[in-house]
Amino acid sequence: MRLKGNTRRQILKWVSASLLSIPVSKALSFSVAKAAQENEPIVPFNLRFKSDERERIFVEKESDLIRFAKRLKLGKTSFSIQSSGHCFAGLSQNQNIVVDTRKLNKIVFDEKRQRLTVGPGTRIGTVNAVTSNYGMALPAGYCQTVAMGGHVCGGGIGILSRSFGLTCDQLLQVKIMTADGSFAVANNETNSDLFWALRGGGASNFGIVTELVLQTHRVSDLTVVRLSGRHQPHQLAQWISAWQKVALRSPKELGFQLYCSNVDGENIEILARIISNGAKNLAVDAERMVSKIAGLSVSYSSTYTGSFLEVADMLWPRDYVGSDYLDIRSDFLAHALSPTEWYDILISMVKDWRKRVSFSMEALGGNIDRISNEETAFAHRTTAKFILQYTSRLRQDEPNTARIQAVKRLQSSFTPYTTGGAYYNYPERDRANGLTAYWGDNLPRLTQIKKKYDPENAFNHALSIPVGK
Ligand SMILES: Cc1cc2nc3c(=O)[nH]c(=O)nc-3n(C[C@H](O)[C@H](O)[C@H](O)COP(=O)(O)OP(=O)(O)OC[C@H]3O[C@@H](n4cnc5c(N)ncnc54)[C@H](O)[C@@H]3O)c2cc1C
User: Fold this and answer.
1) How far apart are CA 149 and CA 100, in angstroms?
2) For the whole prediction, is pTM greater than 0.85?
């Protein structure tokens, strides 16, 4: 059975949709290249947490940080570190001081060793553009305006994660200014405890990152099978359940992401992508298998083959930010759900349709869980099969309590199937199980490393790692 839908309109609406799938709004789009040249405050991605700082310190070279370190040593300096302002929870915003590292945006590619040296202000789009000249790629997130500063040390999940692992798994070395004002180099041999922490523990808990060295990988053309439509919960439940089953048994060269939102009192809108790194038929066959297991297919399907850069640009244009007022939360699913379980979730979404909510889901596994949860600070490898992100667009200058409650209801409909963990790069300020959600059993070790490198807790914010006892 082939489902019907008003597909053309949906395709246009989703033309620049990413994992977050926020439609392009010209009014809010923002030229990164232009802003990077100006000494303007960065427009944050989540306008809900926008705050005007008293002072912005632009870091153009490491000596600028040495001057700041003297102030840091005086203690009680409230500040945030910022590279792009993309943090969902506004952790890079501050009313007092913002240490702005966007101008530390160098990028050097070592062709022989296929290694990349970048500054924290270097954007994913710049990395993609440079590495693609050599037929190489860094596995990183979809949004090309995200910067390396926050992204890499928080984890980094994107198109190539199942193929090659998280962005933090590609780290070979980090240079970071710690609380005593010195610059530490962290790698497998030197400051290896700090290096462990910086692979999933978040950079701004330990210092100000000034340079990252990362391994890149050779990529051939990618194929994207794209499906979209508007369907009733009983039909979609079958399809999503089949999609999950296929994702779990697929080779690591295949990536799976989907996005669902409630649009009216009867239907859910879906956009799904199966992306193969290499052989085109892998993605096409996977889509056929999903439809076969489900006994139906979603209404519009297209197949596109292009270079890694072309696909990255299709998923998220290189200069697009898309700032908005948002409530965003995350969870990890421990396993695939049955059609009945999906039906219950989708029905509750449909019932809530007046409070628009959406979720995105991406398959993990592949090279992400080839190592244990303890091998780096990123604690969601062997226990998590899918990552979920819930979003609601809020209204400016309104309490928005009902909309936030709707996101929480959506989140709680998934709770029986989740690991209890959450992704630190998608932070929530009011997460019920607090920091344990982000780091699980790795939290005690992180607090000890925090104690060693930042005993006075100079680097603190709403979700920072506490200093161990
Ligand atoms: C539209 C959008 C799409 C996204 N898509 C993905 C995705 O596909 N996959 C994924 O994994 N993530 C994704 N993210 C999340 C993204 O990885 C995080 O928001 C990340 O923390 C952004 O880092 P940043 O430096 O660009 O942002 P900022 O807001 O500048 O910083 C984020 C955090 O990093 C800290 N930080 C920044 N620079 C430094 C530095 N030099 N030293 C120390 N700490 C620093 C800040 O203090 C803050 O805590 C997305 C975010 C957005 C807004």
Assistant:
1) 10
2) yes
